[in-house]
Amino acid sequence: MKFTTMFKLASATAIVAALTSGAYADKMHPETGEKLAEDQTFTYRLLDGIPTLDPQLNEDVSGSDILRDLFEGLLNQDAKGNLIPGVAESWEANDDNTVYTFKLRDDAKWSNGDPVTAGDFVYAWQRAADPATASPYSWFVELMSIENAAEIIAGDKDPSELGVEAVDDHTFKVTLTSALPYFAAMTTHATTFPVHKATIDEHGDQWTRPENMVSNGAYKLTEWVLNERTTRERNEMYWNNDKTILDKVVTLVINDENVALTRYRAGELDRTEIPSGQYPALSKELPNEATVFPRLCSYYYTFNMSDKGPEAFKDQRVRQALSYAVDRKVITDNILQAGQYQAYTFTPGATAGFEVPDVAFGQMTQEERDAKAKELMAEAGYGADNPLKFDMLYNTSEAHKKIAVAMSQMWKQKLGVEATLANMEWKTFLETRGNQDFELARGAWCGDYNEASTFLDLVTTPSGYNDGKYSNAEVDQLMVDAKTSSDASANYTRVEEIIADEMPIIPIYHYTGNLMLKENLKGWPVENVEQNWYSRDLYKVAE
Amino acid sequence: MFSFIVRRVAYAVPTLLILIIASFLLMYAAPGGPFTTERALPPEVLKNIEARYGLNDPLAVQIWNYIWNVVTNFDFGPSFKYRDRSVNDIISQGFPVTLTYGIWSFIFAIIVGLSLGIVAAIRHNTTADYAAVGVSIGAQVLPNFVMAPILVLIFTLWLRWLPGGGWNGGQIEYVIMPVIALSTSYMANIARLARSSMLEVLNSNFIRTAKAKGLSERNVILKHALKPALMPVISYLGPAFVGMITGSVVVDMYFSTGGMGQYFVNSAFNRDYSVMMGITILIGVLTITFNTVVDIVYAWIDPRIRLS
Amino acid sequence: MIAKSSKMETLAENIVEQQAVKGRSLWQDAISRFVRNKAALVSVFVLIFITLLSFVGPMFSPWDYETIDWGVMGNAATMGYPSIETGHYFGTDDLGRDIFARTMQGTQISLTVGFLGAAVAVIVGTLYGAISGYVGGTLDNVLMRIVDLLLSVPYMFVLILLLVVFGRSLQMLFVGIGLFAWMDMARIVRGQTLSIKNKEFIEAAVASGVGSFTIIMRHIVPNLLGVVIVYASLLVPQLILTESFISFLGLGVQEPMTSWGALINEGAKTMQYGVIWQLAFPLAFFIVGLFCFFFIGDGLRDAFDPKDR
């Protein structure tokens, strides 16, 4: 008897459970028709704690990822990186492309219910440029070529003179100093996101705390424990909230990538990075989870060509020889092993509108390059009796170390060059490199927007990131012209050819993104080379 | 006793002052600053950032302002790295975390360490002794940056008993692994100290006398040997306690607790001057305080020692 | 540390008293007691073996510590396993470098750091303590306050700053590690100096007009050797542990050189990827080495401190 009662009870519970879950069972993805999982929480790993969640102050990639969820700028990107409307429903430029007018949607709201207006953008952009904000990313506004931005940042003009204007609540007008072909694309960057003035005025620096923050994105910040976790949850006020599927996004700070992988395997995370060298094994073991896609980043070594640099590196033949002798295939296929691209140009091939030029040394086989390198080295007067010696500087990291060790051994065995490794912790490294107190130093750059100039600007004389102090008048002129030309690809090709010939840097490889993504997490934009992903595009399917 | 405490405090003040000044100087001598970034900042922006944090004042003025703010307002300044947090915010978030797993570690280390040490001493030169010595040296030499990932592999991936990290407000399952990783080396030290001092006491004349009088071993150990044997352990506990409650960078890194230990190292790497100073002062104060406490406890247990 | 020093003080008193009574026979006593301690004696031989191996071993290896085996690089899990045939007795790391050769090199570095660091600590600590104790008065007071101050400094923190400020080099590592280990030594030595100071032979030396510095060097320091040796032997493993932590933070020796700590740290990162030899061999050397040091330290302490028996 007892058994039957229990059985009845159990079946009754089962029926109730089936009924309640029935509500979820009906939930399908509106477009694909896939059955959605009950728990729409996405948890991913962060390498480090987030320094700030103020859009204008942020300078971090992982900070931008969160900010794209919390705030919404004028334009967004779709899964392929194409521009789609954000707060702006439409936009148009005048004939010479120097004045842009954005029409803002009238249903966009802040999380406290206030409407998002053109004035919010004016405030945010002026704030970004204002030296008083002291934003480390203020240069981005200058890069956007907005009228008076450079003068404001230099402290010569008042922020109110920035070339932005709220024509009415839903019309935002920007005036540029010159026609910038990729201006619209730059408005997807976190620096340009609107902020809520009343909140900032009220709370000052602490406006970014979860209890204070007012935001206009698909999610709002609900928890932020420094160096442990952040949580963002669905923003009911968001104009497109109905389309949002993920309810909650959690970031966990896990410094060690191997521990992160262990925790991913234990089911604590939906996304983590693949530790360097582990892609082949993981793709065999978990083929549906190990994901690789091209990124907009370039890894290189830069010669110090300033007066403080060594005499040897003033000789073009030495620079060429060292670059030729680096077997990039070994680095991509044996060290990194996750589909990275061997680099013979600075700009990655994945960059929009950029055709990788056939630079001469990229066309040779490695044997030919090695032979040529030996020849060049001998011509320059270095050999067994007079070996070239220099220090190579990199910042402390397992992957950088492996690459540096391999390069130094390649040079030693092929050219008899004695390269001494010097690794430094990050700040010391930046200071040393920034003061030109190095001989050869590692560098890497990820595009701020999807266009070749974000890379090639770095080899121009005035660039703040040209730590090798390479200077070539022709390159500078080509890059200036590229800013106003309707099709700059010829300029970029020419610049790459000059770099390949004069070799101020040794391009090593172009990045790929390497992620472990749980099989039930869908919608990851692998084709977006900038990796501008939005949590509201992601969803979890039922297993 | 009272004058002893007063004198200790009187010494502590100049000690802390010198500590602050020395750390300041050393910090500023380090290459790079908090705002050294990959892309050089425009000069006007840099000027404003520096003005914001008072970095453009002469060093002496900065030190004076700092001390003044600490003394009058208990204000340790804003963090240079985390824009919306002050040092007080960071410490009040991180310190309770390390305090929690630190105190548990302390209790665990004392209980296990003392038991191991005392058992080893009582069973001197037996298998139990050798095992205890082996375990304690082993626990001392196995670096915790090896132990931590092994713990995660075992308890999180294989057994699925414990979450692999995080803090979650200090729920018990999040505390266990940090406690194991942090306490083992302290436990080993306590065991070794307890063993050797217990041995010494057991071989001393008064214990021999007690035994000769026919007291049971249990009685001898609990009533006569334990107290003197604990003396060296007690003086070790002061610095050990401070070490545990201020956390460990390895524990915080591998278990992502958000505790103080990682700020300790990261603030040096980030040149987050104010956080670095705040933690230095906190640890300095705690060290001095607990050394004083230990001295008082010591005198209380052993009346022969005068706090002169 | 403080515990150790208070214990050390009593132990040192014993040693000094012994010396006063029995003269040189203390040394013979100590040696014979030490030799009777099997664990300590075996440890000495193991340690000598490890040290010799670290110098001789590389001669029997076809690979040196920095050369990359290009054929193995990137396939450490499948091809870099320990093998006599390939000449990689302990296997290779991810880059295809020989773990055996690297472990030998790391052994040399770690032992050097331990011994030289301890030497720095012993020299500085002994002189400081002896001067402080012998001169006495205000100087003593000031010097000891400085030691108290330094003991309340979070020293790992300062060590990190030092390595950052002055750049990373092997010398800096020795100095940095050694400089923070001398304070306890100084306290102990001072205490002993105070008690030796009033002995007749010192008074005789003073009366015959010998200078203070000469007295410290000729008469005080030699009488402290016992306690110094014991303390130094306990210090060496502590310093090796400290070095391994510094390596973990990425502030250790520069590549391609390595140390036990650096090797273990790399091995610990890859242990779940089927290349356990990258951790196992260096860790085995590290643990065996440290066990030996601890046993020797205990043995020396027992040998010089007859009260324990």
TrEMBL record, chain A:
Keywords: Signal, Transport. It is found in: Periplasm. One of its GO terms (biological process) is peptide transport. PROSITE patterns: SBP_BACTERIAL_5. Transmembrane segments: none annotated. Its main location: periplasm. Residues 83-466 form the Solute-binding protein family domain. Residues 1-25 form the signal peptide. GO terms for cellular component: ATP-binding cassette (ABC) transporter complex; outer membrane-bounded periplasmic space. The keyword Nucleus does not apply. Gene3D superfamilies: Dipeptide-binding Protein, Domain 1 (3.90.76.10), Dipeptide-binding Protein, Domain 3 (3.10.105.10), Periplasmic binding protein-like II (3.40.190.10). Belongs to the bacterial solute-binding protein 5 family. This is Oligopeptide transport system substrate-binding protein. The lineage of its organism: Bacteria, Pseudomonadati, Pseudomonadota, Alphaproteobacteria, Hyphomicrobiales.
TrEMBL record, chain B:
It is found in: Cell membrane. The keyword Cell membrane applies. Keywords: Cell membrane, Membrane, Transmembrane, Transmembrane helix, Transport. It comes from the Bacteria. The chain crosses the membrane at residues 9-30, 101-122, 142-162, 174-194, 233-255, 275-301. GO terms for biological process: transmembrane transport. GO terms for cellular component: plasma membrane. InterPro entries: BPD_transp_1_N, MetI-like, MetI-like_sf. It is a multi-pass membrane protein. Residues 95-294 form the ABC transmembrane type-1 domain. The keyword Cell wall biogenesis/degradation does not apply. Belongs to the binding-protein-dependent transport system permease family. NCBIfam families: PRK09471.1 (NF007008). This is Oligopeptide transport system permease protein. The lineage of its organism: Bacteria, Pseudomonadati, Pseudomonadota, Alphaproteobacteria, Hyphomicrobiales.
From TrEMBL, chain C:
GO terms for cellular component: plasma membrane. The chain crosses the membrane at residues 39-60, 109-130, 142-166, 227-253, 274-296. InterPro entries: BP-dependent_transpt_permease, MetI-like, MetI-like_sf, OppC_N. The keyword Transmembrane applies. Its main location: membrane. PROSITE patterns: ABC_TM1. It is a multi-pass membrane protein. Keywords: Cell inner membrane, Cell membrane, Membrane, Peptide transport, Protein transport, Transmembrane, Transmembrane helix, Transport. Residues 107-294 form the ABC transmembrane type-1 domain. It comes from the Bacteria. It is found in: Cell inner membrane; Cell membrane. The keyword Hydrolase does not apply. One of its GO terms (biological process) is transmembrane transport. Belongs to the binding-protein-dependent transport system permease family. OppBC subfamily. PANTHER family: OLIGOPEPTIDE TRANSPORT SYSTEM PERMEASE PROTEIN APPC, OLIGOPEPTIDE TRANSPORT SYSTEM PERMEASE PROTEIN OPPC. This is Oligopeptide transport system permease protein OppC.
